[in-house]
Amino acid sequence: MRPDFKKMQNMIPAIVQDVNTKQVLMLAYVNEEAYDMMLKTHETYFYSRSRQELWHKGETSGHLQYIKSMYLDCDADTLLIEVEQVGVACHTGSYSCFFNEVLPKVKKITFVGDEHA
Questions:
Q1: Letter string b/e over residues 62-99, b meaning 16 or more CB atoms within 10 A of that residue's CB
Q2: What is the secondary structure of 32-46 as a DSSP string?
Q3: For the segment 25-43, what is each residue's pLDDT rounded down to a tens digit?
């Protein structure tokens, strides 16, 4: 099964996740060329919207991502890519791009009317 690139203006989002820890590392966009390169090389490739060009993750930094598995969602318009990350994923030097906390982690969810609240 191939992604439905036409539905999403020739690009689909890709969620990149550490294969061992399941930590979400980054979100990027993939066009058909990037998708085909990933199938061929088993390394991540994306389409840089700001530079308008194909981008091989880690090509200049050495922080490569080796693809261990790749899944399409139910609508064939989003990828989940599990990788072995070499070095860090974020250009800031952080392991993951998701480090700016907006809401603190909730320890327990309680509902109105819950007897155990």
A1: ebbbebeebeeeeeebbbebbbebeebbeeeeebbbee
A2: HHHHHHHHHHSB-EE
A3: 999 999 999 999 999 999 9
For 55-87, the pLDDT digits (tens) are 999 999 999 999 999 999 999 999 999 999 999
Amino acid at 43: E
Q: What's the predicted TM-score (pTM) here?
A: 0.87
What are residue 72's phi and psi, to 5 degrees? -100, 145
Query: What distance in Å separates the CA atoms of residue 51 and residue 43, rounded to the nearest whole number?
Result: 20
Phi, psi dihedrals of residue 66, rounded to the nearest 5°? -95, 120
Beta strands in the chain (DSSP E): 12-18, 24-30, 45-48, 53-56, 65-72, 79-85
